[in-house]
Amino acid sequence: GALWMCIVLNPHCKLEQKASWLKQLKKWNSVDVCPWEDGNHGNELPNLTNALPQSANANQENMGQCKSLEYQHLPAHKFLEEGESYLTLAVEVALIGLGQQRVMPDGLYAQEKVCRNEEQLLSKLQEIELDDTLVKIFRKQAVFLLEAGPYSGLGEVIHRESVPMHTFAQYFFTPLLPHDAELAYKTALRAMRLLVLESAAPSGDMSRPHHIASVVPNRYPRWFTLSHIESQQCELASTMLTAAKGDVRRLETVLESIQKNIHSSSHIFKLAQDAFKIATLMDSLPDITLLKVSLELGLQTVLTAALSLPSSQYPVLHKL
């Protein structure tokens, strides 16, 4: 019922589509057997997620609409209206589900399941060869998620314990980059946040009433998968550093994001190493801006380590 409400209230659907859905719902309401229990009824509503490549067979529980749209009998590339196919619809539904803001559940098993389900669905999506139609879907969904407010994991303001979007944004970043670099970086930079480790007030425009506030109490929630999440955050940052080589403005923006959002000294040190390797990768002259990024991150690593020293070591640090 909730799924159908979301579909029917879609403001972008045509009146004839809504009329067709109403007719179908009335038909199903008149039968005694649930359509999913009887293959002779209801096969007009496919499982769109199964229109994706079949090698991964991921369990999509806790992934919003993705679990409910079951497709068994219709070919993935069968075309619908206006050039749409079940494959394109499946990709769009998967992106909608992955981009929804959701609070990290309690407990080790539940948190591991969130990460596992996301990675399984992304792995399935990565098997698809992107064409112009799918790239358009990526651009549309990226813009929508950035502007969608509290229901989006990429909204301007999110709950402190919202599930991070690092892996999802990295999947978005690569196909968007050659077509709309500005949108690709905007999406990835927005996803770099890890508010669960923040102790300051939430960022964003708090004067806009349709946004939810990130309440930041003086405690860290028990995120058992935090080390894995921080690794994903580091991978996203490294991907942006690699792509931004030669672009001074973008490198400075990525550096600022790293310094603001990454709290692990080991990951900052890794990014310093990555920046140095990327800067000196070719036989030509090294990228001076990337070398500066590497130096700044290296100094930040030293400073972070120094701040963790016991107070008895401060005089030694002062001499250094």
TrEMBL record:
One of its GO terms (cellular component) is Cul2-RING ubiquitin ligase complex. It comes from the Eukaryota. This is ZSWM6 protein. It comes from Podargus strigoides. The gene is Zswim6_2.
